[in-house]
Amino acid sequence: MATDTPDEATVLEAWEDGLRSADPLRFRGYVPPESTEESVRTALVNLAGMKTAWIDCDFGRYGGTMGCVAGERVVRAFDRATSLGAPVVVTVSSGGARLQEGMLALLQMPRTVAAQARHSSAGLLSAAHLRSPTTGGVFASFVSLTDLRAAEPGATIGFGGPRVVAQVTGAYPSPPSHTAESALRHGLVDALVRPTRTWAWLASVIGARPWEPLAVPHGRPAVPGGSSRCDTPYEHLLHTRSAWRPSGLEWAARLTDTWLEIAGADPSVRAGLGTIDGHRVVVVAMDRYAGRMRTGAPGPAAYRVAQRAIRLAGKLGLPVLTLVDTPGADPAPESEAGGVAGEIARTLLSLAELPTPSVCLVVGEGGSGGAVALAHTDRLLMLDGSVFSVIGPEAGSAVLYRDATRAPDLTSAFRMRPAELLTLGVVDQVLPENVTAVRTAVTDALSHARVGARGDRAARATAKALTD
User: Fold this and answer.
1) Regions of the chain short of the pLDDT cut 50
2) Tens of pLDDT along 10-60?
3) Does residue 4 lie within any of the structural domains?
4) Using CA atoms, how far apart are residues 269 and 265, in angstroms rounded to an integer?
5) Residue 146 placed within a domain
6) Three-state DSSP class for residue 189
7) CATH number, domain at 42?
8) Which helix (H) or strand (E) holds 104?
9) Domain of 20?
10) Do 158 and 274 fall into the same domain?
11) CA-based Rg of the chain, rounded to a whole angstrom?
12) Are residues 61 and 181 in the same domain?
């Protein structure tokens, strides 16, 4: 195959098929490439010791365009991988659909998507590395449905290539639009990976190579070694909100040994494939020190990456750990227009439908529906310095009394401290803020959580609150 494989990958079987386009439109000047010169080539490779299907779409071969032959090869590769129980890796640079084959070329988009869906439904992983350019119908079909995606730094990435954009809109896209960097910022790819690291990254995605530990930005709070006691509920709340307290990102770094980022467009929620004591887990962590719209307040995009991560866990049969710390979802007009309420609902639905065990650890402030979106889990744990409330007491005071100064009284009335919530049956366990103890409790919960207990706990707590 034209794209050489480095030490990490060895071709076991080149899936040569002799296919060649029949020039279905009799397009003037179109000379269909020989089978060996087609844009897409496929093979079975040994990737760091794991049998893996490889799809290579190369701009250097007929512009990387997808016509009937390319589409058929992609479909066959996914179906072969499904029958073999093998992951699929894609290396791609493409100009999109092959115009000289007209609508027959465009039909390859739904065909390849369907083949990718069959592979995904079998619980198998796929990953893609996007080189420059990756555009059009190839980007808008099977490539964008791979489970994780990386892009070459500086690559042109977009549905419409720059020349198409200029023709349609009258101007070329302005920087940084249509770049790998823009795609990463908007959660369209999960990492920027240099071509020399392509195969190492692909091997790590499919689990053939170890991941790196989660890196926390310099200057962030340290994970505490103990809990502080507060005299009043409001003092407890202020302690929970203290600037020195770690958030979900810090706890994710201390609880996991390794991490592979599942990128999103709003950093108030981070997600990743992690390992804890050698066992893989999907982690979704709220970060109250970051945010796209308002610091610590997740917007629609934050919940979308959570949903993506939870669905991936269900597909791969992995448990889910969520780490909650937010004053609440962002209620700003931009967030409302983006459908934040619907995204919270869909996040709850993704947890409700999750076929694998799930555990939530409240590490800071659990604020209203924006926090409960990640707390509908089989086991719900709280640090003893955390809180969980139907609404922030300041906002609640404004609603109930039109007087925010009554927040301290309402903090007590809401019974939002861990011990009180344990009595109400809202949570399962309260933990001291000790890393060793927390890690032991989380590991035990992930190992023993019963799928479906998430609904039972809520039903029991509700039943206790009812009178005949």
Assistant:
1) 1-4
2) 999 999 899 999 999 999 999 999 999 999 999 999 999 999 999 999 999
3) no
4) 9
5) yes
6) coil
7) 3.90.226.10
8) helix 102-106
9) 9-205
10) no
11) 25
12) yes
